[in-house]
Write a structure and sequence with these properties.
binds tetrahydrodeoxyuridine, alpha+beta
């Protein structure tokens, strides 16, 4: 992925982080995923007083895309509000695996705007997927 394209999707993930609804953890996350159609879908984390119902930013973005008819995605950026890079949780890695290839870039962006790029397959190796359903 070209640097200019990384910066564009990273910016969208940073901007949507403001909309996070995180009154319980105060840990705001933003995400932006690019569909195969070329469209971008943003998402933030959405918490609930019943804590376990929280939806992560990445899954909000993915579900928005799938509900708009995207079947596959080509890149995701995740933005956090701290110096540490915001690594996606296991549940989000599994949901990404459903709709994204192992070579999809996962771009994590910290508060300073520094970023790192991982491949999904490196974040969730030997994953369970539909090919194993008989
Ligand atoms: N969170 C995300 O949005 N994405 C992740 O991959 C990890 C965690 C959110 C969920 C919760 O609202 C807050 O961060 C603290 O766990």
């Amino acid at each position: 992925m070209h640097d200019i394209e990384i910066k564009k999707i990273a910016r969208m993930a940073v901007d949507v982080r403001d909309r996070a609804y995180a009154p319980y953890s105060n840990f705001k996350v933003g995400a932006c995923i690019k569909g195969e159609s070329g469209a971008y879908y943003t998402g933030c984390n959405i918490e609930n007083a019943s804590y376990g119902l929280t939806n992560c930013a990445e899954r909000t973005a993915i579900f928005k895309g799938v509900s708009e008819c995207e079947k596959r995605f080509t890149a995701i950026a995740i933005s956090g509000a701290y110096d540490d890079f915001p690594m996606p949780c296991g549940a989000c890695r599994q949901v990404m695996t459903e709709f994204c290839g192992p070579d999809m870039p996962v771009i994590v962006v910290n508060r300073k705007g520094d970023y790192r790029v991982y491949e999904l397959g490196a974040l969730l190796p030997h994953s369970f997927d539909k090919s194993q359903l008989k």
